[in-house]
Amino acid sequence: MPKINQDQVRRLEEEYDPEMQMRPMTAPAVQIVGGHLFILSCFHYYTAGFGLLREATHRGIHLAFVLGLIFLVYGFRKKSGKSSFLAIGGIPAHDWLLAITAGVTCMYVPYVFNELAFRVGDPLPIDVFFGSLMIFFTLEATRRSMGIALPLIAIGFILYALFGRYAPGVLVHPGASWKGLVNHLYLTSQGIYGIAVGVVATYVFHFVLFGVIANRVGAGQFFIDLASCIAGRYAGGPAKVSVFSSALFGMISGSSIANTVTTGALTIPAMKKTGYKPHFAAAVEATSSTGGQITPPIMGAAAFIMVEFLEMPYRTILLAAAVPAAMHYLGIFTMVHLEAKRLNLRGLRQDEMPRFFNVIRNGWAALIPLTLLIAIIASGRTPYMAAFWGITACIVVGFINPHNRLTIPDLFECFKMGAKYALAVGASAASVGIIVGVVSLTGMGFKVSFMVTNSSRQLAETFVAFAPFNMIALPETTLFFTLIFTAVACILLGAGIPTTATYIVLVSIAAPALGILGVAPIVAHFFVFYYGVLADITPPVALAAYAGAGIAGANPFKAGNTAFRLASAKAMVPFVFVYSPAMLIVTDGFTWQQFILTVAGCSIGIIFLGAALTGYFITNMGRIERTVTAIAALLLVAPGIQSGLIGLTMMVPIIISQIVKKRSKALPGKAAAES
Question: What is the SS3 assignment for 17?
């Protein structure tokens, strides 16, 4: 495999990732913005190692830098020409003013924090003034950095809070005044300065920075080369390299698009060269890369927010995520392998692969920071402390490792890039704070939960009434339809907003419905999280698949559809761990017997489902064989010994048929050779 070209990766990110489409700047704006990005990263690095500030102060400083910098690095429009206004370094004067005002507004709450205890609930006019500005700056910064979808959703929630008396049915509420709404969203920890911003400022930023520096000191290249050595020689080798390298690279990067363009720039051309169709190559890379957000030890911002919501140690979340992530990659690997067999594709030649001992000798040092980070998390220390020592180890290794030497200018650039990656996440967290604040103010979560469970029960009663011999139980059917409604909501909402925002919104609104039906909190949170991630490869807005399609020169919609098919395991696994929580290991009532039965049945079912979707198992499959195999796969994936045995029984004649067909194809060739 060739080496990662960081300049090419950056160009691809700027082209396909809306969050990285920043305006061009000249001096002195380049120096001013670059300096503030560097200071922001230094602030988070220092506080992670030497102690966080008071909550309001820490979050206020974080937001002041994030919102202020967004008005400098993102234009009013994504693609706008030269501004006709007075500009400094390519940035219009009014954006400089907005940046400064946003920073002051963010610091107002920390400044008056000691006095707020005497007037929360009855804010002063100046409090309402600054709070109104804060809401505007939050929505506009999110629009500039992430697009219009999330701000529109937040505005919809604000309107619901103000005019709730006109809402239909159970959604009705007395309605809040603007003064009361601003008080709740700005002066309390239930709104903009709430848990979402707190997690980004305390955890997420540090791990984003770690991922950037770890990739710079050679971890990303090491993972790709190692994957090439392990899987490259086998049938369809480049696609298997894509799966393995994306899984490994996902350990240091929680961004689907960043993973896609970094590893895809190398693996997609190699897949096309060996015979995979462009849309399939793009889909393989995109689907593998979305696994980064569910792969320990760095799973993206949503995992850290889950820590705060559930009040569980991060290592518990990582342990729960391990097996479902493995199921995701098993599904992709199965279909990649069967597609290669169906098309009779070759692996990489010896001269196309790096030598294993050279890879280990040149790249082992890049594993030191990741190993240290995992060890500190496993010891029970805080995630930000683990990130601090991980970043420190990256810097030390980078300065002493001759194969990926890190210089002072490189370190400065890494700190700048880490802050750039975190800007859009910070703005979206503040906007999500508005949504969560409205939900807590109006009690909307319980109202929506009642609507969902009530609708599911009514639909379940209809199915149960028509089921013969009482084969379907009402509680299980109600839960099934509630899961379907929740999954669809996650995918639809995720089409317009990022995974983290989707997760927070749906956990606040839909997860209580699962709790009413007896689903454990960690299981409900993981269910919402998984379907939020799935939106990255679900058309019509499948950003990771579209990035892969751009590299492959493929039809984006076709790549998205193929990516969704490849991710079928990820779509099924959440249903498995809802009905059999033992898969998550950390749930109450865990037994090894239930765990082994669940994982074994799910693994075999995923392999069979891959065969049904590919149309190839031992040899090519007919339509009836594919249908029976798909049904058997679903029965095997469904937790339970009885359903698994039925599925295995259904597969016996299919396997026999496949063996006979394979031998019958081989006999003519053998006879011809003997003659």
Answer: coil
